[in-house]
Amino acid sequence: MHKHHATRIAAVGVAAAGLVGATLAGTGAAAADGFPNGPYCNGPAEVMAESAISQVVICPVQGPTGWEYSGKAKTTGNWIDIRGAYRDNAGFHADNNGYSYHVLRDNLLILAPDGSTVSYEPWTYYYQR
Asked: Which of 65, 80, 106, 128 is the most buried (most CB within 10 A)?
């Protein structure tokens, strides 16, 4: 789905982030929403968000939940893509190797398997369709 190489990595090295609102030209009729050299969707992103250290997009995809979380740590350049993200009234949530990523309207919250906070990142930019 993405042009970048997806790597499964632990949440500690990943802080997630969102789009700065840039639109990248896609192939075909649809345009891709996302960050330059960062995470993006092959069509319109549902959420694009950015903190001081992360960029995140939530993309509509085929599958049981219909959503994918894609994030990049700006500090390390590490990527993570998680299919099966889900939505509730608070925001979007994704789980990977016991870590949970919570994309809320005002922040990104990453929790470790034991429930402790790995990262709490207030958004500097947030856009939701």
From this structure: 80
Q: How far apart are CA 16 and CA 128, in angstroms?
A: 16
Q: In this predicted model, which residue has the larger pLDDT, 98 or 18?
A: 98
As given in the structure block, the two tokens for residue 9 are 């990595």
Residue 86: CB partners within 8 Å, gap ≥ 6? 65, 67, 92, 93, 94
* pLDDT of 1 over the 70 cut: no
Asked whether residue 71 carries a pLDDT value surpassing 80, the answer given is yes
CB 54 within 8 A of CB 108: yes
What is the value of pTM for the model shown?
Answer: 0.74
- Residue pointed to by tokens 């870590």: 99
* CA distances, 89 to each of 6, 26, 64, 96, 119 (Å): 28, 31, 18, 21, 21
Q: Are strands 107-111 and 67-73 parallel, antiparallel or unpaired?
A: unpaired
Distances (CA, A) of 103 to 28, 29, 92, 113: 29, 29, 5, 17
